[in-house]
Protein 1
Amino acid sequence: MTQHEVVVRGLEHEFRSTGGAVRALDRIDLTIEPGELVTLAGPSGCGKSTLLRILAGLTAPTVGTVHVGDELVERPGADRGVVFQRPTLYPWLDVRANVEIGLKLRGVPKDERREAAERQLATVGLADFADKRPYELSGGMQQRAQIARVLANDPDIILMDEPFGALDALTRERLQAELLNLWRRTGKTILFITHSVDEAVYLGSRVLVMSPRPGRIVFDEPARFLRDGSPVPTDEVRTLPEFVDLTTRVRDAISH
Ligand SMILES: Nc1ncnc2c1ncn2[C@@H]1O[C@H](COP(=O)(O)OP(=O)(O)OP(=O)(O)O)[C@@H](O)[C@H]1O
């Protein structure tokens, strides 16, 4: 499978309401290479979710374009999967049916989609919970199920909007490690939004920071100590001088 780069050109976005116009994004140019794990941090309201929704094809930009390879993004597509902060599982379906839903809508035969669902539930450690309803799962497990659903669709690009923001610290750390494993195994392109500077630096192969009003990318650097081929990082990574240095500079970029 050939993966494509994501190319954002001259993106601007304005929300108009009765109170006036909000310029959420301003002159965003960005290329995400196949297989990058790009983390995007920035203060609340700086436009991170708006950018993600435009990449997902859920919001049409006021000005500018997004391409995946040669394709202009105009609507959601099977090449892009979205994981939101709050799990968006259907409460009336069991976990397996929730994971299968995208494949079902695309007309994938039952045996095939069941197999894909069970494989991805195993990937996220939920093999034994396929018959449960979402309300029987913890927040972390629901988030895992949401990730399994995206993986079952096998998108090239995974867009994650603060997926671990609402989880307790321990569950969050476990899911961070799982995400890194998954990324290294599959080589998928991932854009990951977070409020946490530590999470951005820990997970990213490249770290972006946006500034608010109007939303612009003000920081864009590789996370050098997590270059391809390095082992999945442990807590030791956080004590490396390079980690501390990048964390400090990301924090400065956010506060300026
Ligand atoms: N549907 C909307 N209508 C009007 N204004 C909006 C809408 N969605 C977002 N905004 C405004 O656009 C700006 C960017 O919002 P956005 O949700 O993209 O920020 P964010 O960086 O993701 O914030 P957070 O980290 O708090 O989720 C904010 O000022 C917000 O109030």
Protein 2
Amino acid sequence: MKRVAPVITIDGPSGSGKGTVASLLSMRLGWNLLDSGALYRLLALAASNHGIDLANEELLRVLATHLDVQFLPAEAEYSQRIMLEGEDVTNVIRSEYVGAGASQVAAWPAVRSALLLRQHAFRQLPGLVADGRDMGTVVFPDASLKIFLTASAEERARRRFLQLKESDSDVTLGSLLDDIRKRDARDTQRTVAPLKPAVDAIQLDSTVLSIEQVLGRILEEVAIRDLLKHSGGLK
Ligand SMILES: Nc1ncnc2c1ncn2[C@@H]1O[C@H](COP(=O)(O)OP(=O)(O)O)[C@@H](O)[C@H]1O
Ligand SMILES: Nc1ccn([C@H]2C[C@H](O)[C@@H](COP(=O)(O)OP(=O)(O)O)O2)c(=O)n1
């Protein structure tokens, strides 16, 4: 019988550390990585490039279906290179402007359905680490391990500020806290696939935990579930 690849999901609000931890975890396990938020970010950027209104659900659905994207394996320590229509947009899609657009396009049911198959295609042996908002609730409800990662809004804004201040001299801590609160509200209150912990998720508050401590907690759960039994141990 064909073995189905196991999945670990990491969901949570912006700045909780999902992307960093998912990327490190996928490298430690030697598993594939799905940064689902990048898909929504790419769609928002493509819409802006093609002059498509973020309120036009039908045009966004068509764009999502035909989105020309590539995720190239990490060359640097922990980042994939992300291409849109042949152009490297790895850094461009990380701006708060694109993040806010992503949160808007992500509220449309037709957009979410159009991106579902693409997300399932990342599920390949030996396993997948998937991060986002609805990985454990909607996209991979049968995941072997589900983590819901949080941190206080103030700590998440502080992290984002440290991350963005080098490349964007306009950002302030106050404006980022405001953006984070707006995005939290939109992502948790939408009708389809809202941000919420799966009933079987382990909740981790990273406010006072380091990245290594969060990774350590997740690796403990991986060991408890014996998730590496087919893939030859940690890298
Ligand atoms: N536990 C942590 N403690 C301190 N900084 C963190 C922690 N987790 C992540 N960070 C930093 O916070 C920023 C946002 O993390 P990221 O992984 O992009 O979050 P998310 O994907 O949840 O939005 C990054 O600069 C990252 O290095
Ligand atoms: N599985 C997902 C992933 C992201 N989204 C939406 C909601 C988020 O505000 C945007 C951007 O997601 P992303 O994970 O890249 O954002 P953060 O790194 O957490 O700030 O996309 C979603 O609706 N479902």
